[in-house]
């Protein structure tokens, strides 16, 4: 089964030279991906419909409950799903924005034939495609930088983004989210020899790298303004993709990286000279992001997640993440979802 396929694990890359090779590979494959295009207009004939419902806007959103601002599950079709199913021939695929540089999440493995995309997020995409189109391989993957995840959805370049994307109130004002499928938190990644001990005063006078448009940068910026982070901490280095921060760290251009602990653990697995410093200092949830008005697709993805949490999630975790996050997934599996009440 696609979700449980076990592939040979990559050995730690380590070293600037190796990471340069990896980035070159990533760029090459990005150029091979299909050109961006507008999704067909919503519509289509027939099919069972779902009641319309729009997710809560940021103005009425409590940050601690952002992960609950989603619609109840439904297996019914609707205008967005009809448009996806109406695609013909080779275009009859689910178009999904993913990462191709995040080890064990969305990653082009050069050790596989054709440098196949693999990882925890990729398994979920295949499961959604199976439900919508009856074929787990009916997917057109598009490599989307961290900073372009929301615009790719709003512009219609993709049907959804499955790319370690944290559900936040601010983002809920721009896109719709599924129920959470993973729990994580921000952590500090730094060289093992570094004097940094975590998200604390040891970051004073240190240069920190984050991905542009990430929740990590938002948190650092807010904390520095409030005094929770030393004012001398330099957070000016932002990059399009999270992996670029690891390269900057290896080149000595920054002193630490702040990102989701799940991603940081995967980066530490790629380079044995770095490690996580301190505990996670936030609680965050990953969700599948879609257009604000794609209510039928949101409900359908939530229906898929209900089944996936009971059958598939654990197998994918064991395959991709247990080596870096531990065999016990209890800290990473999100709680039972809660849904918005709609009339």
Structure, described:
By secondary structure, this protein is of the alpha/beta class. The protein contains 11 helices and 15 strands. The chain has helices at 16-32, 79-85, 120-133, 149-154, 169-172, 215-226, 242-250, 261-270, 295-310, 313-320, 322-325; strands at residues 94-98, 101-102, 106-108, 117-118, 139-143, 160-161, 176-177, 182-184, 186-191, 207-211, 234-239, 256-260, 274-277, 284-286, 289-290. Strand 3 and strand 4 (117-118) form a beta hairpin. Helix 1 (16-32) packs antiparallel against helix 7 (242-250) and helix 3 (120-133) crosses helix 9. It is globular. Residues 1-58 have low confidence and may be disordered.
Q: What is the overall pLDDT average?
A: 86
Share of β-strand residues: 15-25%
Radius of gyration: 20 Å
Uncertain parts: 1-58
- Tally of DSSP helical segments: 11
Structural class of the secondary structure composition? alpha/beta
Task: Tally the beta strands.
Answer: 15
Reported for the largest beta sheet, the result is:
5 strands, mixed
Query: Which series of helices and strands comes N to C?
Result: HHEEEEHEHEHEEEEHEHEHEEEHHH
Q: What gap, in angstroms, lies between the N and C termini?
A: 39 Å
Helix share of residues?
25-40%
Strand adjacency order, main sheet: 11-10-12-9-13
Shape: globular
């Amino acid at each position: 089964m696609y979700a449980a396929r076990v592939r040979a694990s990559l050995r730690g890359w380590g070293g600037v030279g190796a990471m340069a090779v990896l980035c070159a590979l990533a760029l090459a494959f990005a150029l091979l991906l299909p050109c961006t295009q507008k999704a067909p207009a919503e519509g289509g004939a027939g099919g069972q419909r779902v009641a319309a419902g729009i997710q809560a806007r940021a103005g009425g959103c409590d940050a601690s409950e952002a992960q609950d601002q989603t619609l109840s599950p439904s297996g019914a079709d609707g205008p967005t799903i009809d448009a996806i199913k109406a695609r013909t021939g080779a275009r009859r695929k689910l178009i999904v924005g993913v990462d191709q540089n995040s080890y064990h999440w969305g990653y082009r493995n050069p050790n596989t034939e054709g440098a196949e995309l693999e990882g925890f997020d990729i398994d979920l995409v295949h499961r959604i495609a199976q439900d919508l189109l009856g074929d787990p391989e009916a997917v057109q993957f598009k490599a989307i930088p961290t900073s372009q995840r929301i615009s790719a959805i709003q512009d219609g370049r993709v049907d959804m983004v499955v790319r370690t994307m944290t559900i936040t109130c601010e983002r809920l004002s721009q896109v719709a989210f599924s129920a959470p499928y993973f729990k994580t938190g921000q952590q500090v990644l730094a060289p093992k020899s570094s004097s940094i001990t975590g998200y604390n005063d040891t970051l004073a006078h240190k240069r920190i790298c984050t991905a542009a448009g990430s929740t990590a940068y938002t948190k650092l910026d807010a904390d520095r303004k409030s005094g929770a982070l030393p004012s001398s901490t330099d957070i000016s280095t932002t990059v399009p993709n999270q992996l670029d921060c690891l390269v900057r760290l290896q080149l000595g251009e920054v002193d630490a990286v702040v990102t989701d602990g799940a991603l940081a653990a995967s980066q530490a697995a790629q380079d044995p000279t770095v490690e996580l410093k301190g505990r996670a200092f936030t609680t965050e949830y990953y969700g599948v992001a879609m257009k604000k008005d794609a209510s039928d697709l949101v409900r359908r993805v939530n229906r898929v997640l209900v089944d996936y949490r009971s059958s598939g999630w654990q197998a994918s975790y064991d395959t991709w993440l247990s080596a870096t996050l531990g065999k016990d997934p209890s800290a990473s599996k999100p709680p039972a979802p809660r849904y918005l009440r709609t009339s």
